TrEMBL record:
The keyword Oxidoreductase applies. It comes from the Bacteria. InterPro entries: Flavodoxin_fold, Flavoprotein-like_sf, FMN-dep_NADH:Q_OxRdtase_AzoR1, NADH:quinone_OxRdtase_FMN_depd. Homodimer. This is FMN dependent NADH:quinone oxidoreductase. Quinone reductase that provides resistance to thiol-specific stress caused by electrophilic quinones. Keywords: Flavoprotein, FMN, NAD, Oxidoreductase. The keyword Oxidoreductase applies. GO terms for molecular function: electron transfer activity; FMN binding; oxidoreductase activity, acting on NAD(P)H as acceptor; oxidoreductase activity, acting on NAD(P)H, quinone or similar compound as acceptor. Its EC number is 1.6.5.-, 1.7.1.17. FMN binds at S9, S15, F16, S17, M95, Y96, N97, F98, S139, S140, G141, G142.
Length: 198
């Protein structure tokens, strides 16, 4: 089994989403000895925002690619190959302004490609990335799994939608939440780690 751990917090050892992601990876490794792990820190070498050249490269058949278009699609091809090569994807998700970090969004913009990871058919869109298990390790200052702030969480709903669109429908969510809330913050990570069922 090949595990891919994507990191999108720039906070290194202080990051709750990284710690929670690491705990998920550890449990996966305990349950499945002999698996391989690739850690991809999206904050070290961020994917570029989509510019005209990237879009042109996505929609131009490969045989017609210029050197510029070939260079522009390299990130996307590599990210899709890495994704396809993995069985389990653990995604660390710090909540920023009710949504995901832009580094993670940029990764999604490079992997969501018509004809590669999804396609349109007469019966609507079809996801082409199959047989993946996805774990989301979400960390947030407030509480969003229940209570008045629940409708403000655009991390889980967005990721379920966009990953599902590409065929990744088996998604389990763990949350270290309330990390800024007095009375909750001290136990938020421990509670999240205890909730991991693998
Ligand atoms: C730029 C920024 C925006 C944030 N926006 C929110 C937010 O909208 N809601 C929230 O509950 N917490 C918010 N937080 C708090 C983070 O979600 C929280 O600190 C989380 O643990 C960050 O993930 P990390 O520990 O993996 O870096 C924000 C933090 C930063 C730095």
């Amino acid at each position: 089994m090949k595990i891919l751990h994507l990191i999108s917090s720039p906070r290194g050892e202080a990051s709750f989403s990284i710690k929670l992601g690491n705990a998920i990876v550890e449990k996966l490794q305990e349950a499945n000895p002999g698996n391989t792990l690739t850690v991809h820190d999206l904050t070290n070498t961020p994917f570029p925002h989509l510019e005209e050249v990237h879009i042109n490269s996505f929609f131009t058949p490969k045989e017609n690619h210029t050197a510029e278009l070939t260079a522009a699609i390299k990130h996307s091809d590599e990210a899709i190959a890495e994704l396809e090569d993995s069985d389990v994807i653990v995604i660390g998700v710090p909540m920023y302004n009710f949504g995901i970090a832009s580094t993670l969004k940029a990764w999604i913009d490079h992997i969501a490609r018509a004809g590669k990871t999804f396609r349109y058919s007469e019966n609507g869109p079809k996801g082409l990335v199959k047989n993946k298990k996805v774990y989301l390790a979400i960390s947030s200052g407030g509480v969003y799994s229940e209570g008045p702030m629940k409708p403000y969480d655009f991390t889980e709903s967005y990721l379920r939608a966009v990953l599902g669109f590409m065929g990744m429908t088996d998604v389990t969510v763990y949350r270290a939440e309330g990390v800024s809330v007095p009375g909750l913050k001290d136990l938020a990570l421990d509670k999240a780690i205890e909730s991991i069922a693998i």
